[in-house]
Amino acid sequence: MTDRKKLVAGNWKMNGLMASLSEVQAMVTGAASVPGVELAICPPATLAAAIGGALKASSIGLGGQDCHAEKSGAFTGDISAEMWADVGAKYVIVGHSERRTLHGETDAIVSAKASAVIRAGLTPIICVGESLAERDSGRTLDVITTQLAGSVPDAAGQTPVVIAYEPVWAIGTGRTPTVAQVAEVHGAIAAAMEARFGAAGKGIRLLYGGSVKPDNAKELMAVAGVDGALVGGASLKAADFLRIAQGCA
Ligand code: PGA
Question: pTM value?
Answer without folding.
Answer: 0.97
